[in-house]
Structure formats: C-alpha cells, structure tokens
Amino acid sequence: xASVVINTRFNNRKAEADLKELxxxxxxxxxxxxxxxxxxxxxxxxxxxxxxxLEAARQKAAETAAALDEVNARLDAGRKxxxxxxxxxxxxxxxxxxxxLQQQDTAVQAAAEAYRAQDAAVQALQQRHAELTAQxxxxxxxxxxxxxxxxxAAQAAQAAQVDVSNVQRAANAMDAFVSKLFNAAxxxxxxxxxxxxxxxxxxxxxxxxxxxxxxxxxxxxxxVKETEEIVYxxxxxxxxxxxxxxxxMNYSVKAGGKRLRPILMREVYxxxxxxGKEIEPxxxxxxxxxxxxxxxxxxxxxxxxxxxxxxxTTWVAYGYDMAVLAGDALLIYAIETAAKAFAMTPDAAKxxxxxxxxxxxxGIYGMIGxxxxxxxxxxxxxxxxxxxxxxxxxxxxxxxxxxxxxxxxAGASEAECGTVERMAAxxxxxxxxxxDILDVTSSQEVLGKPVLSDExxxxxxxxxxxxxxxxxHDVKQLSETAVDILYSLPGKNEFLEELxxxxxxxxx
Length: 508
Description:
CATH architecture of the largest domain: Orthogonal Bundle
Strand order of the largest sheet: 1-2
Helix content: over 70%
Mean pLDDT: 82
CATH superfamily of the largest domain: Farnesyl Diphosphate Synthase
Oligomer: single chain
CATH class of the largest domain: Mainly Alpha
Order of helices and strands: HHHHHHHEEHHHHHHHHHHHH
Number of domains: 2
Low-confidence stretches: 1-10, 167-202
Largest sheet: 2 strands, antiparallel
Strand content: under 5%
Number of strands: 2
C-alpha cells in the first residue's frame, strides 16, 4: 500500500541568503565609513593647513600695509612742511611696499579661495559620514531582525517536523484510504480527507506545512496537465499504413510520468523573462527523447523491465521489434518537432543553438555516451569516477539540455547559461542517486516499476558504492547546491525552487 509522504523540511535558505547579502552590505558600508573617515582626517588636516596659511598671508599683508602707512605718513609730513621736501628713499620704499601689498592681497584671496574649497570638501565628507553611519545603523537593525526571522523559521520548522511526524504515523495507519494514490491531484484530495479525519494533531505549525505541501502539489499537477497538453499536441495522428508505429510512440509518451524535463525547461525560460509559445516545440521534443530512452532502457537487451509507471512497457505491449522502432522514431521525430520553433520566433540563431544542445546532450557526448559505458560495464565493478561519468551523461545530460535550452530561448547570456548548466548537473546527479535509493527502499506499487532491478542486473550503483546514508546525505547536499546556484541567477521563480526540492526528495 502507498503511504502519504510529506516533505517537512522548511526551506529558509532564501532568508539566509538575504541575511548574508544584508550582512555583506553592512560590511561594505562599514568599509566605506572607514574610507570616508580616513579621507575626512586627511581633508581636515589639509583644511587646517590652508587656514593657517591664510592667517599667515593676512598677517603679512597687514604688516606690509602698516609699513606702507608709516612711510606714506612721513611723505605726507614732508610735503606739508614749509620746505616741501620729501625723501627719495621713502618714495621708493612706498612704491615697493605698495607693489608688495598688492601681491600679498592676491595671495590672501587665493589662500582664502583654497580654504573655502577645502572646507566645502570637509563638510561634504562629514555629511557623507553622517549618512553612512545612519545607513549602517539601519542595516544592522535589519540584519538583526532577519537573523531573528531565520531563527524563528528554523524553530517553527522543527516544531512542524514533530507535528508532521505525529500526523505521518496516523496517516500510515490509514493506508487503506490511500492505496490508489497515483497522481499529484489525488495526493492533495486524499491527504485533505485523511487530515480531516485525524483532527487537530498538527496544530498551527503543521497547518502551515500542509498548506505549503498542498500548494506545491497543486501547482505541479497543473504544470503536468499543461505540459501534457503541449506534448500531446505534437504527437502524430494514429493513421495510415504505419499506424502501428504511431500507436506505439503515442502509447509510450502517454504512459504517464513526471514531465520534469519540459516543466524545468519552461520554468527556466520564465526565470529569465521568457514568454510565449516558442518554447513549446522544444518542450515536446525533450519529452519525446526522454521517452525514447525509456523504451530502449526497458528492452530485454538492456534492463529487461516489463512494467513502467504501473503499465506494461512498450516492448511487452507491442513486441521487441516495434519497441525498437518506436524508440528510434521518437528520437528522430523529436528533432523534427524542435525545428518547428523556427517558425515561432524571429531569432533563428537561438533555435539552431537549442537544436545543437538537444542533439549533443542526447548523442554520443551525452545520454547515449553515458548509456554506452553503463552497458559495457554491466556485471563488472564500476569505480566511482566512471559511475559519476555515467550518471552525468546518462541522466544529467537531458536535464542539462532542458534547463539550458530554457535559458537560451529566453535570451540568457553565455555566462548565465553556464551557471544554469552547473545547476542542472547537480540536480541530475542528485536525481539519479535518489533513483538508486528508491530501487532499494521503495516498492513496485509506489514506484510503478520493479524494484531491486539494479541488484538483479548486477549493476553497480551509488548505493552499492557509498551506502544508503551517504547517498541520502549527498542527495541533500547536491539539492542545496542547486538551490544556492539558483539564487545567484537573476529573476525569481519560487516554483522552480520547489520543483528542485521535489525532484530530489521524491518517493517515486
């Protein structure tokens, strides 16, 4: 029987990131204050020097003026005497003193102007210092408030975890009510019904987590519905002499699934401001390629699985030969479908770039390359470096293609696309490790396909190399890395973050 599984990990990394950003800003403000203080000290010293120079110039001018007055007084006295005799020496001295006084007056004016300019600079620095000091005080207050908010959120999350654990135990006892739990929509309905029966065990903390979980599930269910409408609209009509291959293709695509790759593509497209339908042919194409790989993975020569998502695999339903053809057909048809984006945007270059990414990440340097090494090493011990290589290409490549294509179609820069690719690589590795964990810990009823298939096929997995606990730890760490990278990108997409969390903590 299926169980109700609720992810109660309260995600406060955004709040922590905001707090770190604010703390960094406060440090920068403090550094600016120190720089202003140094500049203010230097400017004040210079101003004081200029003030002293001004006073000295004024004193010299005053002394020269006094000497000139004295000489002129003697000259006036001589002119007024009965003899009308003046000293030639005094006349010459008077002229020299007058010229010197003129020079000193000019120097005084220049010194006064320099002082006024420096005083204005000092006042401006003082004003800037006051502004920065007030700003720093505000930033410190805000940082304190945010730190308290983060601490409170962590405390609430811990309390919610306890409450949810109680509800989980009660829900597990009611497994009979949820035995037919197949999709996200039913999760929400059955969870709600179960919780109403359980009563008020959870309290306010659980109410918050429950509401959050339901909201995410509802948004995912809507995203899956919208994505399937898009993908199905590009499938071939089941008619003509080759009708069987169309039926096999459509059966495989419509067999269900999480539709994660096209959803991730669109959400990254939206993250970078993308709008419109130009992304839709590429969404359909990535899902066709993914389905193609699943058809081939299930074949007797590969994993030899008879069920996927609770339905017979394509080779069981249509035969080995038709399954091979259906996988090949979807692979080629995906490129044909992706090319339809050319008619939906004036920027043909970005569509061409996306088809290149799609082909590269699917082919020998991507998914098929990873599958090649995986098949070659079946029944052999696989060292960690080769296992990482297989996972990065076999699983991670298509996730990378999905997310990078979303960025390219939205007009993201080359650097931003590189950042998205790193984020997708972390998600891809976490996704595959979680797949290994579920193969060991889940059931066919929940997973929708046989469990312990890796052990049956004598395949080395992350779990066989590292163990369950280390594998779970690495999944968590990779998830956090991916979300941290997401925060470094422009724009906001809360659903994308939630989707990443669900990808790596899924139960099927």
